[in-house]
Each structure stands twice: as C-alpha cells, then as structure tokens.
C-alpha cells in the first residue's frame, strides 16, 4: 500500500515537473531578431499588414527606411524612381509608425541625394530621433560632392548611412567606393542591393544583377568588408537571398570571415511573413541553416545590429 502511494506521488511530481518545463518553453521569450530594412506602404502594403508580417517573421525590432521627397530630376530618373521605385512613403510616415510602437520600431531619415537642401532636411529628422540615413537610392555617383556631404552628416550624428548599389542605376561607381571608405573613416557605411552582393564574387560581371553559380572569393565587396572597419553588409532583398543560396559552401565561409559585419534585413513586400512568398523569412531560414555555429547566427540576426544601433 505504502509502495503504491509512493509510486503515485513520484509520478505526480514527475508529471508536474514536465508540465512546468513545457509551459516555460512555450512562454519563453523568442530569440530577438533585428530587421534593419523595411518600408512603409511598400507596394501599397498597409501598416497593419507590415506589422503582422514582422510579427510572423519573429522580428523584435524593425528599422523603417523612408523615401526622399517625390520630384522630377535626373537623380530620380525623372520621377520614375520616386518612393524608392517601390511606392514607399517618406520620413513622416516612418517616424509616426515607429513612435506608435516604441521599442519595436525605429526609423531613418532620407532625402534625394543631390538636392542642395538634402543635408538640412535629413538633419531635421536626425534631431527628432532618426537612427540612420537611408535608404540612399538615387542616380548619383557614389563619390559625388553631394553624397559626401551626407557621409559627413552621418559621421557627425554617429548614425550609419545605407546605400543601394545598382550598376548604371543607383550610386554609380562601386569600383571606386573604397576611396570613400578611406576618406570618411568615421562614417559607418552599410552596403545593399544587386551590385553590392554580386561583387562578393571576384569574377562578377557588372551587368549581371542576379548571378548564379559558384563564387570565387575576393570580389570588391569581400575586400571592402575585410579591409575597412566602417563597411557593413545588409543581407536584405532578393539580391541578398540570391547571394546566400547560389553557393552554400561559400556562404558559410563568408559568414565566418565577416561575422561581425553582416546585418539581417528583409526589404520584403510580402503581407504574411511566412511561406514561399516571403523572401524575408527565407533569408532568416538560410542564415540559420548556413551560419557556422549559433554564435555567428546570433551576430547576424541580432548582435551586430544591436551594437550598431545601440538597441537596449
């Protein structure tokens, strides 16, 4: 009788312990993820769909990158590239959404690069709390005098500046960008888009925006990340996912080499945050799959952005 009672007590305690452990696992806070690259009204996506998308991906902090003022001039391709060529909204929209969700959302400041008023306009938003100058996506030379004024502004306010590099379209002259990295050592630069990611390959053909196949290490981007402490990489968009998936063995080695320089971003227009239509979720999955260990994975998905943007 005593034996049966003791056995029942033991089983009760064991089941209670298992139930407590299961509950703790279910309620444990998810590992934090920072998405450094999102937009408001991206391809007419409503704010509530953006919020749901980020939650579904498991993102805990999102940085919203505004477009510049819509206008007709060569640097906006006579207006065709207004809204970052994706119908994205500007500074006010990003600030308002971030302020409505403190802690979960941060925001950037932006303006058309070659406007004489661009530094003053961007500085206004930096003073209000913007944490980055981005997304600089205009048809200018990457070493233009107007561009350099913004690089100097980023250094003065100790915020990064993110540039969209696309051959013969945005921030031209990537092969000369090392001169800017050397000339502006106090400016933190974040590279993004087709030309940036194509140039992880030493044999990259500039006109091929989404190259496939094996990668030969030592391309311009590989060298910039290795040689300049102020150069960082934004893993976002189809160009970033393409770079991840085209040569998985190279990706693991690339992550190992540049583990302190790579930042997760989604730049994803999807509404749901999951499934084959969500490039942002696919990129998170590939980072987790190909990172050479948990420490590197956490750096890319959280720690590097936490340090760069001083996230608590």
TrEMBL record:
It holds the Pfam family Amidohydro_2. Residues 1-24 form the signal peptide. Keywords: Signal. Residues 34-310 form the Amidohydrolase-related domain. SUPFAM superfamilies: Metallo-dependent hydrolases (SSF51556). This is Amidohydrolase-related domain-containing protein. It comes from Prosthecobacter algae. The lineage of its organism: Bacteria, Pseudomonadati, Verrucomicrobiota, Verrucomicrobiia, Verrucomicrobiales.
